Structure formats: structure tokens, C-alpha cells
Amino acid sequence: MVWGMYLPRSGGPYGPYGHEEGPVDQYGDGWRHRLTKYYQDQMPDAQKSFYRDASKYAYSVVEKFLYEPGHRQLGPDDLMVTPIEVHEPPRFFQTDKGYNQLASIISLSNRMWAVDAAVKKIVEQFEPDLHRFYPVEIRSPRGMVYPVQYYLLVVGSWLESFSSQDSNQESFTPHEANGVKWFSILGYKNNIAGLALRPSVFKGAHLWRERGLNEWLLCFSDMLEAELAGAGLMLPKSYRMRSV
């Protein structure tokens, strides 16, 4: 069996509103400003010619946390995703209000996923050294650090096991542009439960993303789902998908 978890909606303990490295001005948060300054003051000229300008660089860094290296969006100005460099991950996420409790898997701004240390430990038990976890502090507006360590999750496995012909046709919307096909889904139970994935493709995998479904959905093996569900953690809902 296979399970799917949709990116939690923003707002509340599953997706706190906030800013990477704090709010700054109408031009961006602290993370964006730091990346812009790096481009201006420290980036080698060869890299500058690749990104073309500071704004494009900051935007491209966000995409590194959403897609796999080598991926390229369909826009005429979009660049190929390159590996994350050591200075690029955001150092903290400042929430718009304080929280007594956050879920163990949360969404941050820019459609990024974050997990706490307990989830990280479970995932690494199943697939050590496959996925990347970048430490990120969760801070309140007054600078208080949430007493649980979180990590930005960058999934290291992207598969193409989604079978559109075997899925409920009302569960997704197909798209195509420039010869590239992809599918969009909404984060409702029936949409996720109606998706069909091929075990012949995802066999042996425990945590992965589907290329055609991009960053919105996490896929779990039955074993990983059971371990997470049995750990007593506060988690977004996951739904069983079809195996065909």
C-alpha cells in the first residue's frame, strides 16, 4: 500500500504564517535580502552570469527546496534547478504569532515542508543518507525559539509511478505545455485517495515525490506510514492511495 500527504494549508499549528529570517520590507523577507546581498558581494562572476540578476537568484534558491536538481519550470525565464549550497538554506522562520504547539510536519512559506527531530529520526531509520534535512529554528515575533528542533525537508527520491489511467479521473486535472505533461490535485481526501500509483515503480521506496505531481504531495510506504502513525506525533492527515 501507499499513502499520500498533501502540503498543509497555511495558518495554525500545521502551517504557521511567517517569514524566513524575519520580515523586512515590501521587497522581501530577511532570507531574500541575505541571498541578494550574497549575489551582489560574494558570488563568483561565472555564477552571476548564470542567474543574471539578484532577484532571479533568490527566486531560484527557493525552487531548490521544491524540486529536484535538473528540473526546470516551463516559464521562458526559468532556470534549471541546481544543488543547494551551504549558505543558501534559511536559518530561521519567524512566525507571525506565538505557538504553544506545532505539528511534527508543517508547511512554511514558499510551499516548503519542515519536520521535527522525531520525524527526521524515523525517516532516516528507513532511508539513511537519501533525504536532506536542513536545521531551521522556529522563532516567535519576540524572538523566542520554539523548544523543538525543526528541519527543512528536501526529499531525495523523485519517481514516476503515478498512473493517470488507473486513477479516479475526478481526482486530478491534467495539463500540458511545450510537450511536458503534469497533473494538479487538491488537498482533499477523495482527491488523494483516488490517485493510483504503480508498485513496480515505487517498490522499495519509503518516502518520495512524484514528478508529475511536484511539491504538493509526499508519498509514504505502508511501513513508514505505520511507524509515523504509531509514534504519537501530531501529524497532518495522510490518505491511502491505490496500488495498481
Q: What are the main properties of this structure?
A:
single chain; 244 residues; alpha+beta; 6-stranded mixed beta sheet; 7 helices; globular
Short description:
With 244 residues, the protein is of the alpha+beta class.
Distance between the termini: 10 Å
Task: Report the portion of residues in β strands.
Answer: 25-35%
Average pLDDT confidence is 95
Proportion of helical residues: 10-25%
Major pleated sheet: 6 strands, mixed
Radius of gyration: 18 Å
Shape: globular
- Characterize the quaternary organization of these chains: single chain
- Secondary-structure content class: alpha+beta
**Topology, number of strands:** 16
Number of helices, counting only DSSP H or I runs of 4 residues or more: 7
Strand order of the largest sheet: 10-14-15-1-16-13
Poorly predicted tracts of residues: none
Please trace the helix and strand order, writing H or E for each element. Answer: EEEEHHHEEEHEEEEEHEHEEHE
Structure description:
The model has no long low-confidence stretch (mean pLDDT 95). A hairpin with a 5-residue loop joins strand 6 (105-107) and strand 7 (113-116). Helix 1 (30-41) packs across helix 3. The protein has helices spanning 30-41, 45-51, 54-64, 117-126, 189-193, 199-202, 222-229; strands spanning 2-6, 18-20, 23-25, 28-29, 92-95, 105-107, 113-116, 132-139, 150-154, 158-159, 173-177, 180-184, 196-197, 207-210, 217-221, 239-243. It is built from 7 helices and 16 strands. The strands form 4 sheets. Strands 10-14-15-1-16-13 form a 6-stranded mixed beta sheet. Strands 2-5-8-9-7-6 form a 6-stranded mixed beta sheet. The relative contact order is 0.19. The protein is α+β, with helices and mostly antiparallel strands.
